[in-house]
Write a structure and sequence with these properties.
It is built from two helices and ten strands; from the N terminus they run H-E-E-E-E-E-E-E-E-E-E-H. The protein is mostly beta strands.
Amino acid sequence: MTPDHPRLIPPLALALVLFGLSGCNLQPSVSLKVTDADGEELEVPLSSVPPPVTDGVVTVKSFTFAPWDMGPDKPKALTFSFIVGFADGAVPKSIVIDDFTEQPVLQVFADMNAHVVKDHLWGAVSVPYAPQDEHVKWVLNLDNNVRVYRFTIILKDGSKHVLLKPIFIPSQMKVFMRTQLGINN
């Protein structure tokens, strides 16, 4: 026997179904707040691939650390590599990158005659820094760490773009870097 009217879904069941379907689109977001060298508070996403930092004209697409082999019988060092993208028509004149985590602010890299290469991108690798150098001595402690890097970019049109790139460095990454650098844990 079939009922004469369609079966009504109770409101609670409907709410649960809608909540369940919308829950599929929710993604957890974990972040922490840190303070930079100027006392500004920044929110740092704790994701395996941090999102690019942009102001709509300039985008810090990649910032990485890597051990650098200095040659036979020489200790390894740590380098920084960067990729910055530019909007159509934006032409860089100079790019300066500083460790802006705390005072004193340390310059990591400077290109006073910057040029984009392909697809509106600029890229560079810093000089190698020994693990005891002020620029990278944070690798010597095994605590979780956040470093804040400031990109100051002057375009040929005279405009100045300052972007802060916070990077979460978990202790496990430091253990790996120390191993690659030949430092005993």
